[in-house]
Amino acid sequence: MKECKIIIMGFGSVGQGIANAISLKKEMINEKYGVQLKVVAVADSSTSAICQDGLDEKLLIDIKKSEGKLSAYPDCGNNMSGIDVLDAVEYDLLMEATPTNIETAEPALSLTLKAFEQGKDVVTSNKGHLAIKFSEVIQAAEENGVEFKYEASVGGAMPIINFTRETLSSCGIKSIIGILNGTTNYILSRMTSEGSSYDITLRESQELGIAETDPTQDVEGIDAACKTVILANSLLGIDATYDDVTVEGISSITSQAIDLAKKDGYLIKLIAEVSQDNLKVSPRLVKKGSSYDVNGTLNMATIKTDLAGDITVMGLGAGSLETASAMLTDVISILKNKY
Amino acid sequence: MRLNLVLELLDVPGQLVSVLEPISGLGANLVTVIHKRDSKNENGKIPVQLTLEGEQESLNRVIERFEELNITIIEKDGVINKELVSTILIGHIVDKDVRDTTDKINSLDGVYVVGFDIKLDGEDKSTALINLETDYGKKQFAFDEIAKIADEKGLLMINEV
Fold first, then answer.
1. Are residues B158 and A283, on separate chains, in Cβ contact within 8 Å?
2. What range defines the domain where residue B47 resides?
3. What's this model's pTM, rounded to 2 decimal places?
4. How far is CA A322 from CA A12, A40, A165, in A?
5. Are B161 and A259 within 8 A, CB to CB?
6. Segment A91-145, tens digit of pLDDT
């Protein structure tokens, strides 16, 4: 029986979603693709659980939830963390779900490059290293002859990177315009339906856990700008980094602006535009009832192609199991190719 | 009577034929066609000038047919078709001389302010919705120029997608 030994780095919402998704789907994957998935190590920011014979995915989640750290995992828990874990156990594939860092790209960058050097495939949901050093990371993967997949980094569960590359492979891509941040879309949707101010709506979203305690990355458009860079590089072949994107967030949007827009048949959305002439994240007016009229935490993107015209995709842009689904799909495509 | 039209066609084979073909069938005569494949406009399309001759009724039928075929008519007898667009400005609009802002927009070639709706929020920033009429194909030019004005005055501009 073929086996794929997996390390999960980062055990927050997405990391736990991965463990959950593997636990739910490993039997199906075994039946359909003849490969047994085995989680051999999981690390959070300061501890880890490592076992060459495989860890129990459900138990990992329970321990993390009840004890707050993975070192409490029976027999296999320890205080090792970060890059050392990659040397502590034999593995085939790294699933990297550490928090995005737009300043240094760490720890994702070091972890990913180290895994490449060890000849291991990597699946990530992280945006930092891709937004700052896209070409460097891709080149390192190519030089080491390993697979590197990052569907989950843009749009969560919404298919866009693999979809455009594979399903639309006959088409040239002219531009991609979309809503790539669920938190801001939620805030703007609520401001539109409730007529409430930005500050009140933000606070409400924080209470609901939709916006983070420090909402800067989302509301100032930083998160959407990272995704813009990833799409520009991966789908339009533009050699861009984060600094090439013009970014304007939603914190200056007034309820009056939303009212005025509404009166004229428009909605205000935080729109990312990816084209050869324009890399831009900014609040824009969209027609009510158009394909951009999606509410709540949903993401969407319209891909403008030369042969197929406009194609629009939509889906949940965040969420534990949703993001993990995109990562597991990446794992399956690696299994299909290599195993 | 005669009718001068400027149409906009995609740069793909068969486009010109599909436009010319219905004309005689609808009782109009084609007097001139000017079709320069190498001069694309800002939409990446090719403008085509036509002069037609016929009864008013026949000419109307031709125009109806073009509309059914989703062919864009940029100009009819020298009158340029307009596009309606909107934009929102947020900031200290009144303090930054609202009259000067609209005057500057109106002075742009082919761009006209046709609606202006402002909401004030006490001492705070105000918000204005501006409806514009632009000559066909001038939309992006209008947005770019207004962005410069907004930038000068420290206003946030929200444009259509």
1. yes
2. 2-80
3. 0.85
4. 14, 23, 21
5. no
6. 999 999 999 999 999 999 999 999 999 999 999 999 999 999 999 999 999 999 9
